[in-house]
Design a protein that fits this description.
This protein is α/β, with parallel strands linked by helices and about 250 residues long. It contains 9 helices and 6 strands; from the N terminus they run βααβαβαααβααββα.
Length: about 250
C-alpha cells in the first residue's frame, strides 16, 4: 500500500511576464503579467481546483508577476482568506548587468563564453550591476527597510539557494512539519532551488534539470520525516513540452 502524504507543497511558476514576452532577463526587475500570463494563471488555478487543493498558507516573492499570479489562484480557489507571506528572499535570481538585456545583447556585450558559463554553472556570478542603474534594487522602494548592504549586485544560483535557505528553515519547513498544504508562487530559479533541495541534487545536476513552464503547478508530497514521497507536474505534459519561453530565469 502506498504511503499517504503527511504534507504537500505546490510550487507554481508565475504566468508569462512582459519580460518573457519581450525575451529579456528581468530577475529583480518588477515586470508584470501579460494577458497571456493572466490566462496561464487562471488555467493553473483551474488545475489546482480540479485536484481539490485546500491550502493552509501561501508564500510568494516581493515581485508583482508572482503576487498577481497568487491573487488569481486564490480567487479561483475561493481561498483569498488564506494567510500569505511575501518575502524578497523568494525573489528571482538577480542577474546583475544582464538585467533588462536579451541573449543577443549579452552575447554582444559579454561574449559567448559568459553566456555558456551562466547557463551551465551553479556558482557562476554574472557581471555586477552598477548602483547607478535603474534596475538596481537600491532604487526600489520595496526594499527601503532592508540594509542596502544585503541587496545584491548579482547572484549565482548558489547564492540564490543560500538566500532562500533561512526563509525555508524559518517559515516553510515548520509549515510542512506541521502537516500543512503549502502553496508557493514564484519564479523559475526559485523552483529550481526547491527541486534541488527536495530531490537532493548537486549543483551540476540541477543545471541539467528542466524547469516546469510558466503556469504549470509542481506538486511535492512528503512523509512525517520530510522524506519526499512523490513529485509531479499538473496539466497536459505534451503541451508543456511545447511551451518554449525565454524565462526570466536561466534556461
Amino acid at each position: 500500500m502506498d504511503e499517504l502524504p503527511y504534507s504537500r507543497m505546490v510550487i507554481l511558476r508565475h504566468g508569462e511576464s512582459h519580460s518573457n514576452l519581450n525575451r529579456v532577463y528581468s530577475g529583480w526587475y518588477d515586470t508584470d503579467l501579460t494577458q497571456k500570463g493572466i490566462s496561464e494563471s487562471y488555467s493553473a488555478a483551474a488545475l489546482l481546483k480540479e485536484e481539490g487543493f485546500k491550502f493552509d498558507i501561501c508564500y510568494t516573492s516581493a515581485l508583482k508577476r508572482a503576487i498577481r499570479t497568487l491573487w488569481i489562484t486564490q480567487d479561483v480557489l475561493n481561498q483569498m482568506h488564506i494567510p500569505t507571506v511575501s518575502s524578497w528572499r523568494l525573489n528571482e535570481c538577480h542577474f546583475g548587468a544582464f538585467t533588462g538585456l536579451n541573449r543577443e545583447d549579452i552575447l554582444n556585450q559579454f561574449g559567448e563564453d559568459t553566456i555558456e558559463k551562466w547557463k551551465s554553472s551553479f556558482n557562476f556570478v554574472p557581471p555586477p550591476i552598477s548602483q547607478e542603474s535603474i534596475y538596481h534594487p537600491i532604487h526600489d522602494k520595496k526594499y527601503l527597510s532592508l540594509d542596502p548592504a544585503i541587496l545584491p549586485n548579482a547572484e549565482s544560483l548558489e547564492m540564490l539557494n543560500n538566500r532562500i535557505d533561512p526563509f525555508y528553515q524559518d517559515e516553510i519547513f515548520p509549515s510542512l512539519m506541521q502537516g500543512k498544504t503549502v502553496l508557493l508562487v514564484g519564479h523559475g530559479n526559485v523552483m529550481r532551488s526547491f527541486i534541488k533541495r527536495f530531490e537532493n541534487l548537486t549543483g551540476e545536476e540541477i543545471m541539467k534539470r528542466p524547469v516546469t513552464p510558466n503556469g504549470y503547478p509542481l506538486v511535492f508530497e512528503f512523509d512525517r520525516s520530510m522524506n519526499l514521497i512523490s513529485s509531479q507536474m499538473l496539466g497536459d505534459k505534451e503541451k508543456a513540452k511545447k511551451s518554449i519561453y525565454l524565462s526570466d530565469g536561466i534556461l
